[in-house]
Amino acid sequence: MNPGRTPLIAGNWKMHHGGASGVELAVAVARAAALAPKVEVVVAPPLLAIPLIVPECAEVARQLRCTPIGVAGQNLYPAPKGAFTGEVSAEMLLEAGCRWVILGHSERRQYFGETDEFVAKKVVAALAAGLGVMACVGETLEERTSGRTLDVVLRMVDAVAPCLRGAGARGVIAYEPVWAIGTGKVATPRDAQEVHAAIRARLAGKDAGLAEATRLLYGGSVKADNARELLAQADVDGALVGGASLEIGAFAPIVRAASELA
Ligand code: PGA
Q1: What band does 189 get if pLDDT is binned at 50, 70 and 90?
Q2: What is the mean pLDDT of residues 247-260?
Q3: Which atom of ligand 1 is nearest the CA belonging to 183?
């Protein structure tokens, strides 16, 4: 972590907790976040739960006199409105109370065919509408074992970096090695730091201010027992957490670890 950047811990719920259980979990996260004022905490619930969650979290924040947790969409379509059946726009997420959106997650790339170019369009649309962006990058196991990790990751970074210029703290890149997502296989803190440092250097080569301001999250099997070591790395500014964000008993210790290091 770096004292110049606020640590960010985000929970990507994927297709879990779409209703009442999501409200319950979000309220518990909001309470845990109140104990970690130096950490920015975000949850990314399924779409239908968002309008239920936003007011509940605002109410917890009012009672505890703290900043409300952020709520993120998990995807969007890069047009403000129109004939795009099944899609949601940045403006709609914003109106529902989201402040963030996760874009280019490897599951979107893998199952829904999202390309670097399409992800970049989404990043532009999200920032223009006023959302913060967590843009995901990461290599597959095959790419890692064949020594192409940095080629792949930096190609993905190059696609979104120009769009993140001027975004400041609203611009976030999440390094999520695909082989570590949901597998229990976590990158070693050293491997994570190596890739994060390479991403930071790539950004610095384009724009020093961009490299300073952009927060870099690690994602892929982050749990209570490995979070601290990962978050202690110089270029790791937070975590994007999947499985361990689905229960408060697993997520709260990750928020606490960030708070202790902040
Ligand atoms: P995981 O997922 O923590 O379950 O590995 C991370 C993610 O997909 O964002």
Answers
A1: very high
A2: 98
A3: 5
